[in-house]
Structures
1.
Amino acid sequence: MKHMIILSALAVCYVSLPVASPIVAAAQATVDEPAAAVAESAKEATSDAEENDAAAKSTATDEPAKKETEKAEAKSAAKAEPKEEKKKDEKAKRKTAKVEAKPMKVVVTLRGTFAAETMTPVALRPEAWSQYEIVEIVEHGTEVHEGEALVKFDAEKIDREIADLELDLHQSELAIRKAEQELPRMEKSLDMAATDAAQNDQNARDDYERYFKIDRPMILKSIEYSLKSAQFQLDYQQDELDQLEKMYEADDLTEETEEIVLKRSRTNVEFAKFNLEQTKQYCDELLQVRLPRFDVEIKEAVDKASLALARAKTALAVDLVRARYDLEEKKQTRAKSLERLAKLMTDRGLMELKSPADGIVYYGECDDDGNWSDVARLIAKLKPHYSVSPDTVVMTVVARRPLEVLAEVGEDKRADISVGEPAKIVPPLENAAWLPAKLASVSSVPVAKGKFAADFDLTGSELPDWIVPGMSCKVKVVTYDQESALTVPKKAVQTDKLDEEQKYVWLVDSKNTKAKPVRRNVKLGKTSGEDVEVLSGLEKGDVVSLEDESKKDDDAAKK
């Protein structure tokens, strides 16, 4: 009895294993497998179950003497069972999909930004002044009206600059007036100086010529005769003295008279000697010192007169022109000062910037994509006592409505979208109503690397009040909508190794599971999610493999 129970338990286990395996294999098959293959698997499973039940009943009623025979049959059946199950598992491992005709919609999602259609920049663009220190400024996000003061700058320095410049202009005007009056006088004075220099030069040359031709020879002759005259006077006085002495020695005159005459004559002789000595010294000095010096002086006088004439001619030719240039320079400097004064007066009006329109104040300038990337920095910078750089947009007055959406389209999606296509705008608030829009324009050339600018029109959309310019959003554009498109999973599509442009699938015979899959070239269309559209090469209901069968064949050949 104990042996019978054990044999019955073994029989039940033997029956259960082959029945469960085909049922599980049938359950694991995809919903796209052919119905015939599923029915065939179920039929085989039922037949195997009936055979196993019969074997179990026979085993339960056999005599104990047949125990060894039953064990041998059980082992043989156990060895045969894995082979049959392996074949069925191989069939079940092939994943397939059926070619279906179903709706296909391709939606391109873009990152967008709400932007105001009307934005008026408030720029600081002075012509000459560069120092703009903030005294008062409205805060970022303030609602303003046209004509309202936005920024006030410190005007003390520019007022002082204007006052100094006006004083310089008055002084330059007087200097120019004086120069204009002095110019004719200078011209006449230079002309007279040139004439005098020419006359002096001619006189010097005449004096030089007269001196060496007439005066110098006469001086030498005068020296000679002066010496002769002095010598003659001495000789004359000496002879007279000698005669008197002889005469007075011979006559009977009184001694007193004699002494007087002789004394007078001796004195004249002494004077004549001194005169001769003095004349000799004077003539010697004249010949050795004064006359050579005078020769040099008269020559230098000629040279000096010639230089003076050259200077006078240069002054007449250059100084007068330079004076005219100086006058013109003063006029140009004054003109530039007048121009700068006019610019400063204009810049003085920029000391208070007023709102050009009604709207909201945004610090900085809106980017091409609708974002305000510089706002955080400007909020920290645009405060009293801080300075604003010239030639910058300080702030922008933004109109609340109407709004548009600005986005950037990648170059890989540029060909899929066109002007006029409908779109949906998804606001950043969760569960907010989507807003209808229309693609108004797309840039013809990239605005950044691989990016094109797109503008979406929101005309007709009722925008909530909480949506303001600068808020982000998502833009969904339907670029393809087909009600009935033949599709297969992307995993079923393979690429030819020799021709990457050629795509193909492995077509499976749904009626003959043992048949080898056949390669079928296909032409593909749009892609949506995990599905790809098949334009040609397949028909509705075809079954394709989701695996690369050629790779499986290569792996089998290697083994």
2.
Amino acid sequence: MSTYTPAGISACDIDVARRNLRKTPPNSPPRPAAKRSPQKQKRVTPRDLELVPVLLCVARVAYVATPRHALELVLLLAACREGSASTTLALPCAATALSAALSTSNLNALRAATIATAAYATAPEQSWKALAAVLAALLALLEAPRSFVWCALAMVLQDAAQIRLTRRVAVPTRAVPTSPIRARAPMLPEPAATDRRGELQLVAQLGALSITHVAMDLWRGTCGLSPMLAARVAPLIAGAALLGTPVDDDADAFLAGVFHVDVNHALLKRLGGYYGAVLLTLLVATRREPIISMLAFVLTRRRLAHVVYWALALVGGVYASANVKLPRIERRKVFHGLVILLFAPSHDDALLGVAFGAAAFLMLAVEEARARRLLSLDDFYGRFLDQRDSSIALTHIYLLMGCALPHGLNLILKNDGADCLVLKLGGVAVLGCGDALACVVGRRFGVQRWPGSQKTYIGSAAFVGGVFAFFLFYKPIFLSRGQLVLDAMVIAILEATVPSVDNLVLPLYFSALALCAVAVDRSQQFPLAELLHDL
């Protein structure tokens, strides 16, 4: 029997097609058409929303800055990596706003170093982003050509600090009980595998710029009061020593030597190194001994009473936070509230600046001793640490730095003839009142959350209300109430979307917005800053 085969189709092709046909029963309904699976929509992440408040802050700073400075900020914004806009633009925005608020150009070299280090730290992968970063650095160097040495120094220090931070902090390490000493060492919570590149980049940039600023003051002979210089130098030395601690705790010989040979000798040697470095710096700059000058500075009736108040408030706050029955995240916010009790009532700016430096030195020294297992504080630290801390804990140091940075910017502004209370207490208001209220209210009453984030809308509203209520007791003069609310709303959105540790980022952006208000006032025909300075 012959089989008819159409032209172009072989009999073998027909047999293969018959075998592939599925058998369907007779009188069966037609098979429905296959439904196409809907395309998955891209999920909104906090990194997508992070650009909104950063763009608002950059636009605000660019409005009061010179066209060249505004162009540098735009180039940095275009060159930053995805998800790192808030950390990359934090210090450049604050430095540009400070430059616009000052009546002199004493800090052009420091601002150029800030732009250069930010451009160097972005490390973009695309060629056009690398070109934007290079153009931003070149514009900053062309404006202050004599600052090339300071920019090079800041970039070298930043690179060294970031390498050590990445090796010491970003790589999580845990003690392995291979010796009796390790067996007694409690384990810290395992850090989450999150990208901390932007956070470490900002910390390294901040440390490098702080050292560069001290070096510039020493070179120019404008270092100021001896206790203030000691308060600036001592934390930098302690931070450098902390980054020199062992990366892992597997040096059994080192631990055995510390615990069984001479613990006091190791501690005295380390403290002697701190004191020697600070003494050498102060003798070169001011020809004064640090301990005697510090005692002469503090031992007055009013300042001594203030120090006693700080000690009592600190002991009471730590005891209350350690014994209160709250979730860990809310227990951490007790320290934010303690910040208000410590720093808000202070009216002595010089004493407050020295206190910030002394507290930072003590925190870094204690953390170094804990990292070297010279002090056993893991049981106490374990009540407050979370996944953002690794083998060394830095979040409590970030809280102190977030309060100290706006105060330091206000001291620079005050030396130029203006004093902004919103800037001076900006870190205390944002972290002590706004951030704490946002956490507590958002966790207890929040329902609707920001897209892709755990932060709630009602928590952000509590942030704005807390910052506004804080400044109602102080009646700021440079910012109207409406402008203060708008600035607090921008920082609240940033707090809800920033992926890194917000204790550093939020005060810097709030300081930039406060400095913009001072710059606008100084651009008037009869500035209020000069009038208050004359009075």
